[in-house]
Design goal:
This protein is α+β, with helices and mostly antiparallel strands. 35% of the residues lie in helices and 25% in strands.
Length: 269
């Protein structure tokens, strides 16, 4: 009743999943930076998540962890599992009693898997989209993988929920969290579309524009920024950004992230 992809890209590890199941993000995705990522589904065993990460952390590779988890579980024949380890090695398991169509496909840095699908084309779309989008941010790639899988047929029972989890050491809020992205759509008629919308909001608030693309706040632009801030009742960019939840995109008042400038202009048309 689910399709998912686990992947590593550089120093990031992530999982994206969609299912005709309430709040799939509370069960399937697990990830830890420089350890790996796990997707546990079908007649899911949620303990595969923490146990899998524990085994990866002590040095077992993806194939060894899949073998260990399956061997320890009497319900293995109804389980499905995909793992990517710290080095990007992957492994998967589809139990023989998973409901048709069920299967998986692994490649360099990713494992794609699904069950109760219209056919293998759903998993193929996950894999082929990931392979075709190298060079783009991992979170974007994973959302695109879900969209392509759904377009290829998806879960044959329909859609309900979706989730995106990406981790990076110190890559999250204020550099004090390893969770770069953690978004969940628990119940929605178009969960992947809604997940994409939420990711767009997330990227606007917490994304990173290279510093060399920031604009110097001087001359006419300085006058414009200060005038717009004054209209909103603020005397500094940092003060307004803190209220607008854009503080992660502000660093002093001498230069401005173009995303912040756009938001300020939208706020003061």
């Amino acid at each position: 009743m689910t399709y998912s992809i686990v992947a590593r890209d550089g120093d990031q590890w992530g999982v994206a999943v969609q299912s005709k199941f309430l709040a799939v993000g509370s069960v399937v995705p697990w990830a830890q930076p420089h350890v790996g990522a796990v997707a546990t589904q079908a007649h899911a065993n949620p303990r595969y998540g923490p146990r899998g990460l524990e085994l990866l952390a002590v040095g077992l590779d993806a194939e060894q962890v899949v073998a260990r988890l399956v061997d320890e579980d009497e319900g293995r024949d109804e389980r499905q599992l995909g793992i990517v380890d710290a080095a990007g090695r992957t492994a998967a398991w589809t139990g023989p009693e998973c409901m048709d169509w069920a299967g998986h496909r692994t490649g360099d840095g990713y494992s794609a898997q699904g069950n109760i699908l219209v056919g293998p084309e759903t998993v193929d779309a996950l894999a082929e989209t990931f392979e075709a989008t190298a060079g783009r941010p991992l979170a974007e790639r994973l959302v695109d993988c879900l969209a392509a899988a759904q377009a290829a047929g998806g879960d044959r029972r329909g859609q309900q929920s979706a989730s995106l989890l990406v981790v990076e050491r110190d890559g999250g809020y204020a550099g004090l969290s390893d969770v770069l992205v953690d978004l969940r759509v628990d119940d929605h008629p178009d969960p992947i579309g809604e997940l994409r919308r939420l990711y767009g909001l997330h990227d606007r608030l917490f994304g990173r524009t290279p510093r060399d693309r920031w604009l110097p706040v001087e001359g006419a632009l300085a006058d414009e920024v200060m005038e717009r801030l004054a209209r909103l009742g603020y005397d500094s960019l940092e003060a307004w950004a803190g209220v607008a939840n854009l503080e992660e995109r502000v660093d002093g008042n001498d230069a401005i992230d173009p995303v912040v400038l756009t938001a300020l202009r939208e706020k003061t048309p």
